[in-house]
Each structure stands twice: as C-alpha cells, then as structure tokens.
Amino acid sequence: MDRAQLCAIPAQRLMPGFIRAVYCPDTIGAFEEGTDRGDPLAGLTPEQLEYIRQLIDAIYEGRAITASYNVFIVGIIAVFAVLHWREQKRDEQKWAAIQQQDASKRLTSGSQLAESGASTPSSSSSSTVVQTAHIITPKDKVDVDLERLPLLADSRPSNSCPSKFITNRLKSWLLYQPPPIPFIDRVLPSNGTSLFILSWLALNIFIQFYRLPLKWSFFFIFADRAGFLFIVNLPLLYLLSAKNQPLCRLTGYSYEALNIFHRRVGEWMCFVAVVHFISMLLYQFVIAEDWLLASQSPKEYFTHPLILFGIGSFVSYELLFFTSLGSFRQRWYELFLASHIILQVAALGFLWGHFYTSRPYVVIALAIFLIDRLVWRMGVKRVAMEMDLKKLDGETYLVSGDWDVLPGAKGILAGWEPTDHVFLTVPALGGSHKLQAHPFTIASAAPGKGVGEDGKTKHAWCSLLIRVQFGNFGFTRQLLEYAGTSDRVEVEIDGPYGSPHASSMLRASKNVILVAGGSGIAVTLPLVWALLHESASQANSEEDDDEDKRLLSSRKRSGRSGRKVHMLWVTHSWWHQEWIPKEQLDELVALGLDLVVPKSTMEAGRPDVHGIVDQWIRDADGDTSVLVSGPDGLNRVVRNVAAGAVRQGRDVRVAVEKFGW
Questions:
Q1: What is the full DSSP assignment across 495-522?
Q2: Cα–Cα dist 573/135, whole Å
Q3: CA 614 to CA 187: how far, in whole Å?
Q4: DSSP character for 381?
Q5: Which DSSP letter does residue 457 get?
Q6: What are residue 112's phi and psi, to 5 degrees?
Q7: pLDDT digit string (tens) for 36-92?
Q8: Is 340 in contact with 324 (CB distance < 8 Å)?
Q9: How far is CA 45 from CA 1, 49, 100, in A?
Q10: How far is Cα 495 from Cα 382, in angstroms, rounded to an integer?
Q11: Rounded to whole angstroms, what are the CA distances from 337 to 334, 341, 475, 598?
C-alpha cells in the first residue's frame, strides 16, 4: 500500500476521528473536507509508513473476521431448526401411533363389552382425587425442604451397555439444574443451557482474538475489534427480543426460554462496550505516540463529534443493562418498559453517528424493532375489547371474556393454543398505562385457531389469572383497585404468542406429568384440558347409536385410554385452590386425570414433590413427558427428578414454562 492509496482511504470508514491522524497527522481538517493542503503523509519515516500500512491491513482483516460472526449464527440456527424438525416429525408419528392404539383398544373393549352383556361400566380412574372432592389431605404432614433433597439418585442405569451408560449420564448432566449461586442467590439454568451459552461466548472470544497482533503498538486493533463485535451482535439481540421472532417456530423453544439467551447477549454486548470504551481511552492517553493523535488534549478529544456519539451510545446501552436487571424490572416494570423503548431508539441513533461501519447493522436492528412493535403487534395482532373483572382474593383477580371464533378474525379473536400468552393494556387506568403492555399467560382452555374440523364455529372463553406483583404500586395493584369499583373494563390485547413445543411433546407421550406451583396452574390447566378433551373428542367421533358404543365411551371417560395424565398443583394458601372451580377439576378427573392437590404450604409445609413426581415416573410404562410451571425452586426440583430418572436409563423429556415479570 503506497502513499496515494493510504490517502485515498475514506477516513470515516476506517476509524474514529482521533486516530485519523494515523495517516494524516497535520492536515486532519483538509483530509475531512477533501481539500488539498499538502501531502498528509509528509514528514513520516519509512518505518512509520510501514506501521500505518500494517495497522490498516489489520483493521480491515479484523473487521472481515468479525463480520463472519453472523454466518456462524445462521448456521447454528439452521442446525437447531433441523433438530427441531426431526423431533417434531417423531412426535407426530408417536401421536399417530397413540391414536391408533387407542382406537384398537376401544374396538377390542367394545367387542368384549358386547359379549359380556355388561350394562354398566365401572370407573377405573387411577386418580388419587375422588370426583366429590379434589383436595388431597395427606395422612401425615409432609414438610420437606425441596432445596435439601438429593437431586440425582445413585442407582445404576438399567442398561448395562457402556455406550448407553455414557449417553444416559451425559443426558442427565445436561438436564440437571445446579442450585443458585450462594450469597447473591442468582438462579442458574440447566447445565445444557449453560453449556450452550458458554459455547456462544467462546465463539465471541475466539473472533475477538483470532489473528489479533499481540503487540502494544497494535492495541488499537483490540479496541476496534471489540467495538465491531458489539455491532455484529445487534441483529441477534433485537431478533431475540422480538415477540414475533421466527426463532420460536424454528427451534421449538418458547419466548421465555429464548429470553434467557437474549439477556446473556445483552450482558455480553454491554461488557464488550466497556472493553471498547476503556481500551480506546488507554490507547489515546497511554499507549499511542503523539504523531498518531489528531486530538492532543482531553477537551479536544471528548468534544469530537464521533466521540460524543460514541459516549451517547455507550451510556444508552449501559442504562439499558441496569434497567433490565431482574431486581429493577420486577420492582419498576413500567419504568423498565418505557426506558427500554426510549433508550433503544436513542442508542441506535448515537451508534449510527459514531461508527460508519455499524450502519447496516443499525438498519437491520431498527427494522426488526419497528416491524415487530409497530407493524405486527400494533397493526395486526392488537385488538380492543371489553372484559369482565372479578376479585378472587386480596391479591388475585380474573380478567375474562368470551366470543365466537370467526373466520378472518385477527389476534386473540382468532383463537389461541395451550401455553400461549398475551400482552394486556388497560387505557382506563389513565396516564402512561395507555402505552404499557404487560404479559400474562392465558389460563383457560384453548379453542385452537380457526373453525373446527366439523366446520362449526368455536366459542372462546379467555381468562387471565393476575396476581399483584411487588408491593402496593404498579399496574397489577392499580387494576386490582379498579376491580373493586367496576366489574367491566376496556382493554387492548396484543397476542397470542407462544411455542407449540410443549403441547407437541405431551401429546406424543404415553405418560404425562404436569406440575404447577401457584399461578403456574394457568399453564398446566389448558394443557391438561386439551390432552383429555382431545382424546374424548376422538372417541366421540367414532360413536354411533349403538348402546354398547355409548357404554364404551363412558368407560373411556373413566380413564381407560392409552395415555396416563398426572397433575400436581402446589399452592401457598388454601384460598388459592379456589382459583379453579371444583367442577372443572372434577370433569378432568372424570376424563382420566390423576390429580393431586395437597394441603397448602401455609397449612402443611412443602409437599414431597420429589417423591410424588419420582413415583409417577417409576410407575410409567414407556416414555414420559414432564412439564413444570412454578417458582424457581419447584422448577429445579422437578427438572432434577427427571434428570435422575434419565440417569437410570428412563425415557423422560422435560419442559419448563416460566414467564418472568
């Protein structure tokens, strides 16, 4: 690279203003304005020119390496999409086999019933809950500290094959969730999730240091690459934050599961932003030689437009990080929502002005943000309606409504699937509430989407179970107070959103275990309802007017289907058990549900969740799918019980549905 080529490089495409003097030390103004005020490289020695050439080559090479990051990301997503597609196909095949098996059993049982001349079927439900009372009262008080239970059993795997032994141990270890970090009480995800996040971090660190000149004179390359590593992560960060992201469908993971990764991406970006900022200051004021610097004084340096834009971007993203912390988000959720939108827009604007090479990534991130927030969520999925308000206790209330699911309806009016959630806005609360949207899981049975298979119109009953969150202020408390003065409210609902992975997994299993902690019943109840009523509908479609077929259908409703469904509901107070009508639970028990609702933890202490779930898994004949939705401690215990069963060679899959506030 000769002198003419050096001066022909557009400075704004290469590096910030303070380092442009790396090849134009005395005529920075002339170079920026494109005027000719002499040779910008005059007076430099051959050694200095060679250093400049190497520095510029290293900068371009580093940016080319860093730009390949998103190629790796697309490849990783493609791998997960293929794995999810294969799992989905297997689940569909298993579900079809279960349906066929149930049909065969019904035909066989019908023939035997006709031959025996039986006139009245006997109930064979294995439920531990009788239909006249759904509350379980243990003979002895069980007060077990879930955090102190052994999480992985020492029993040997049932399969003595060495490869199977190793595979089971590996699967169990990946599924296992360690206890929270001591002192700071930070909840850790499963080992598999942690391993994936660490692998992603390793990819970022590898890109940061790959072919990096390890010399103090090239320290600017390290600082520059950290800044570029920040901007190449922008599309991934905004994609993971979007409600209408394709990653849920491609990978099968729920939004909340992907949100864990979104937070780690944001934390890493804020970290590399700090590295970039501090490294640039070190280079400017400690490492760089005077002949390289365009800004000789701190005032001149910090008032340069490019530096001001950089500081604005840095401060905006760091504020985003601090306002996204769990403690801040839970205590001041409304402020979190408002600051997230304002700071994101400001940060992207500052980044556009600070770093020329960042502009394509800024455009992509802004497009994702606008399409998700404005075009799709507000224009396509948001609907306004009037809903009922009903207080259930001093801290809990129900927001509910019903309507016919009509063809061509949009948003929630078109129906939803089990485990879907929505964002609720209540303009009637006034003030900033018109701009706030709060997430809630739909706690009622899902009608599905569109018209029924028989062409009949479906009717949707939509209920949102809401508990007051964190103190006496905020949206949930104000809406509870509003419920004390009115039993109807105008709302805007954005949604539904969710992933079908959990319901597909449960449908494909012969043995299903669902565990709910408190308001986690909002997740498990629609799934149980869908599983049992789906089987009932299938049986009803095969009935005719023959008396024996009707008797067979009645026996099927008593639990003689090919799938066994268990549900454990742990509540803190006895009145929480009144959230779900007893008649609704009785109907599910009549359809074959094995339901356990222990006395509340306030009355009898913590139930033996470990023992109950472990016994259900041991009694299972065939594969088992487990879904848990509750507080972190409960989720961890259930996950680790399943991990112990996998370690012993059992076929167990787990899904955790936790929606954070």
A1: EEE--SHHHHHHHT-SEEEEEEEGGGHH
A2: 13
A3: 23
A4: I
A5: P
A6: -65, -35
A7: 444 555 567 788 888 888 888 888 888 899 999 999 999 999 999 999 899 889 888
A8: yes
A9: 15, 6, 84
A10: 7
A11: 5, 7, 12, 38
Distance CA(234)–CA(62), nearest Å, equals 18
Torsion over CA of 83, 84, 89 and 94, rounded to 10 degrees?
A: 100
Q: Report the b/e string of 427-452 with b at 16+ CB within 10 A.
A: eebeeebeebbbbbbbbbbbbbeeee
What are the Cα distances from residue 53, in Å, to 31, 98, 567?
Answer: 18, 69, 69
Tokens, residue 415: 């129906």
Taking residue 230's Cβ as centre, other Cβ atoms within 10 Å add up to 26
Give the residue among 519, 514, 506, 509 at the shortest CA–CA distance from 593: 514
Report pLDDT digits (tens) over 226-268. Answer: 999 999 999 999 998 887 777 888 888 877 778 889 999 999 9
φ, ψ for residue 586 (rounded to 5)?
-60, -40
Asked whether 174 and 191 are in contact (CB, 8 A), the reply is yes
In the block, tokens 């002339």 appear at: 30
Determine the Cα–Cα distance for residues 228 and 239; give it in Å rounded to an integer: 18
Domains of the chain: 1-13+22-41 (no CATH), 14-21+42-73+194-379 (no CATH), 120-185+502-656 (3.40.50.80), 383-498 (2.40.30.10)
Residue 541, CA distances (Å) to 453, 538, 562, 591, 592 in order: 11, 5, 17, 16, 18
What letter would DSSP give residue 376?
I
Is 236 in contact with 71 (CB distance < 8 Å)?
Answer: no
Residue type, 13: R
The whole-model pTM stands at: 0.80
Three-state secondary structure readout of 595-631: EECCCCHHHHCCCCHHHHHHHHHHHCCCCEEEEEECC
| Structure token digits, residue 521 | 């019943």
- The CA-atom distances, in angstroms, between 126 and each of 44, 511, 592, 594 are 89, 13, 7, 6
Reading the block at residue 118, the tokens are 């039986």
Contact between residue 353 and residue 314 where contact means Cβ atoms under 8 Å apart: no
Q: Can you read off the two tokens belonging to residue 564?
A: 């066994």
pLDDT of 140-171, one tens digit each?
433 444 444 444 444 444 555 777 888 899 99
**Residue 582 to residue 562: CA distance in whole angstroms:** 26
Question: What are the CB-based long-range contacts (under 8 Å, 24+) for 204-207?
Answer: 204/69, 204/229, 204/233, 204/268, 204/272, 207/65, 207/66, 207/68, 207/69
